[in-house]
Amino acid sequence: MNYEFPGALPDQNIILSKESLVEEANCVLTFPFYRGKLVLVRHHSRGWELPGGKREEGESIIQAAIREMYEETGGELDSIERIGQYLIYEKTRLVFVKNIYISKVRILRELPDGFETNAVMLVDTIPKQLEIMNDPTFSPFMKDHVYLIASEWIKDHRFTHC
User: Fold this and answer.
1) pLDDT along the chain (162 residues), means of 10
2) What are the residue boundaries of the Nudix hydrolase domain, all occurrences included (predicted)?
3) pTM for the model
4) Which helix (H) or strand (E) holds 40?
């Protein structure tokens, strides 16, 4: 089943699926869990959000997820699983192909300097969409339906209870 809805920014449209819609993703989004708690990062200008980012030249998409996790949280992954993919269109042009992952974090180290996040927060329960929508400290990227739907997909995953 595919979901289609507006994105977080004007003129964006998103198609979301548990299946791969496009073979080669160029971005990642991760729902990381450390000791059963969801790891969120505070982007210096957008606010609280899930770790993620763009794949670099010569990097596999899994390597991108591992690197982004370290750069944004100081975390090292123990396990990672793809749970879905979404496409972001701006007007009619496909801009981003993001694989969505759930991961188990082995260790959280000190947040590295020089990247775009400035804090890490561990939350006991996955925040509900209504909580995020009404809280201006959350990134606009957490306020679209990607988070709402994907958080339902992972709510009973084994990584959420470790």
Assistant:
1) 93 97 97 98 97 97 98 97 98 96 97 91 94 95 94 95 80
2) 20-144
3) 0.96
4) strand 37-43
Structural domain includes residue 57: yes
Q: What whole-number distance in Å separates Cα of residue 43 and Cα of residue 102?
A: 20
Domain count, the chain: 1
Convert the pLDDT of each residue in 115-129 to its tens digit: 899 999 999 999 999
Could you give the CA distance from residue 54 to residue 61 in angstroms, rounded to a whole number? 9
CA dist., res. 76 & res. 56, Å (int):
18
38 belongs to a structural domain: yes
The Cα–Cα gap between 49 and 25 comes to 20
How far apart, in Å, are the Cα atoms of 8 and each of 11, 13, 45, 155, 160? 9, 9, 15, 23, 26
162 assigned to some structural domain: no
Task: Give yes or no for a contact between 80 and 65, defined as CB atoms under 8 angstroms apart.
Answer: yes
- Encoded amino acid at 128, one letter: K
Question: What is the domain extent for residue 78?
Answer: 2-154
Indicate whether 105 belongs to any domain: yes
Q: Which residue, 94, 91, 64, 87, is CA-closest to 77?
A: 64
